[in-house]
Design brief:
single chain, alpha+beta, Nucleotidyltransferase, domain 5, 3 domains, 8-stranded mixed sheet, 26% helix, globular
Length: 571
């Protein structure tokens, strides 16, 4: 008999993170974890994505979320470092010496994991917990690279979300769309409707467009066009506020301790979330610890409060909001496919998606286009609840392939092929040491094209051929990607290395390989396939030889230089 399952969703956000869960015995009842360490009697649907290591420099102990005292220094926005190598971003997040961004993410995810498990044991009986299998679904931005998504998986596994637990990664806008569409009134969204989902978070904004192909008995959607996104979340408004603060305060700002500056930005959070740009509300105030009144022209601090006008607040918001409107407009244009289709709804979700000002601006733009803007209830928790729904679908054996995605990149492998005069360059020519045939290296076999439809049950099979005298595996191939349309047939600057794929056939006896001879010397030929499945938040390669599976290949995303390392293998 199958064990009952508990599915836990984790929305690991840039500024805030949330956890929700449900059981396969009661799948329609999704519970948010609202009690957090040191939050007291207050309940919150999320906890700050912040961590503070010991002042001694030790990284073996740390505080997180609401546990961090207001006067203590903390790391925030570290999630963004899983994706970017930008020096400016790294300098803004001072990672402790000897640690990598994945280490910090591991520690924070470990805190979320232990809190989730402790909460489940407190709420459910011991008998229920001992009998249940706990699965986890962790969400990742769709705009992220495959390497960044893989770093998130590694951090989650190192945090303990592995072994006895099943772990899935799911793209944030897909999770939000699943939940938001399911909670709409039955008459609101119909089969054939086209919906643009804008998942606006703290760090990233993801855009994805769906056509509804089925609502009952199973929700089925297909992407209308390739999704888009950018790093233009609400943290950029915080940065704009810090710049305004530094400009207005001058020397007073430079004398503030870093932890005091952090407290001021956290105090600004209340003003930011409440801003609607109402004409009757012309002035806003942010508390400034350690300062009372500064009687200097332009500073405008009185009784410990920093004054911001409505116009100044618009100046903080508008560069970010204008960028989001541009992204939405581009996505709508692509979804309409040259006016052959019509977008019916714009769904605004995510933490920043709860902003009344962002909603007001997007609604004003969308109404001109004849598009209805929806800000679903619980917009900030749509991602984590959608993650639980997807995990329940998998745990309960729901049909796969309910979401058809369009590949955002071309994926392929560098290879060698028989040299053809007039097609291949002599600079790529070499002689195969086993067969003596003239070959051309630096060629690329593309197995997924940008815009190809993919779902969880899509398998892309690629055949590989290796010649050898003595097995010295595992054999390592490089996977590359680019966004050119059409993709080039050879390695060029726009083709970047994504990861390496290790195919290990050490358990195969030599007698199972084909044997050939050259110059009275025997060599072997191994023909195998790598079966690729591209899921919402990750990809997997299964190694198949002679019709038998040899498990999933090891994918190494780090370190990769971005320069393509060509393997001399035939495909």
């Amino acid at each position: 008999m199958d064990h009952p399952r508990i599915v836990v969703g984790i929305d690991f956000g840039t500024t805030y993170s949330s956890i929700a869960w449900a059981t396969t015995s009661s799948p329609t009842h999704i519970s948010l974890i609202a009690a957090w360490p040191s939050a007291g009697a207050r309940t919150h649907h999320s906890t700050p994505s912040e961590i503070s290591y010991h002042v001694s420099g030790s990284t073996s102990s740390y505080l997180w979320g609401y546990d961090i005292p207001s006067s203590q220094q903390r790391l925030k926005w570290f999630k963004l470092l899983l994706e970017t190598d930008d020096e400016a971003a790294r300098s803004a997040v001072p990672i402790p010496p000897g640690m990598k961004p994945t280490d910090v993410a591991r520690d924070f995810l470990a805190a979320l994991y232990h809190h989730a498990i402790q909460t489940l044991w407190r709420i459910n009986s011991a008998n229920v917990m001992r009998a249940s299998k706990v699965d986890f679904v962790v969400t990742v931005p769709a705009v992220w690279t495959d390497a960044a998504k893989n770093r998130t998986r590694l951090a989650a596994e190192q945090a303990g979300i592995a072994g006895e637990h099943e772990l899935q990664l799911l793209s944030e806008p897909e999770a939000a769309a699943i939940y938001s569409i399911k909670i709409q009134e039955s008459a609101a969204i119909r089969v054939g409707d086209r919906i643009v989902v804008c998942d606006a978070g703290g760090g990233t904004v993801d855009l994805v467009s769906y056509s509804i192909t089925s609502l009952h008995p199973v929700l089925r959607v297909s992407e209308c066009c390739i999704g888009d996104g950018d790093f233009c979340g609400s943290t950029q408004i915080d940065r704009n506020f810090e710049q305004l603060l530094a400009y207005r305060m001058g020397a007073h700002y430079t004398r503030l301790r870093p932890e005091v500056r952090n407290r001021i930005v956290r105090n600004f959070e209340e003003v930011k979330c409440a801003f609607e740009d109402r004409p009757e509300k012309e002035r806003f105030f942010v508390q400034i610890p350690t300062l009372d009144t500064v009687d200097e022209p332009g500073v405008r601090i009185r009784d410990g409060e920093f004054e911001i006008t409505r116009q100044e607040l618009r100046g903080l918001f508008d560069p970010v909001v204008n960028k989001i409107i541009q992204l939405v407009a581009s996505q709508v244009e692509l979804s309409c496919a040259g006016n052959r289709f019509r977008v019916n709804y714009l769904l605004l979700v995510g933490g920043f998606g709860e902003s009344r000002y962002l909603y007001k601006r997007l609604q004003a733009w969308a109404s001109i286009q004849g598009i209805e803007t929806l800000q679903p209830r619980d917009a900030a928790t749509a991602v984590v609840k959608g993650a639980v729904i997807r995990g329940l679908d998998v745990a309960m054996g729901a049909p796969s392939g309910s979401v058809v995605r369009l590949s955002r990149r071309n994926y392929g492998t560098p290879m060698s092929t028989p040299f053809i005069d007039g097609r291949h360059s002599e600079t790529d020519a070499y002689l195969d040491p086993f067969t003596g045939a003239k070959m051309a290296k630096n060629q690329i076999s593309w197995f997924i094209r940008r815009g190809d439809p993919l779902s969880d049950d899509t398998r892309v099979v690629r055949a590989f051929t290796r010649t050898f005298r003595k097995y010295q595996g595992p054999w390592v191939d490089t996977m590359v990607a680019c966004e050119l349309d059409p993709p080039p047939g050879t390695v060029v600057d726009d083709v970047k290395t994504i990861c390496t794929i290790a195919a290990d056939l050490a358990d195969v006896k030599k007698s199972k390989y084909s044997r050939k001879w050259r110059y009275f010397r025997r060599f072997y030929v191994a023909c195998y396939t790598l079966d690729l499945t591209v899921l919402s938040g990750e990809m997997r390669f299964e190694l198949v030889f002679n019709g038998e599976s040899y498990g999933f290949c090891r994918l190494d995303f780090d370190p990769v230089s971005g320069d393509v390392q060509v393997q001399r293998s035939g495909v």
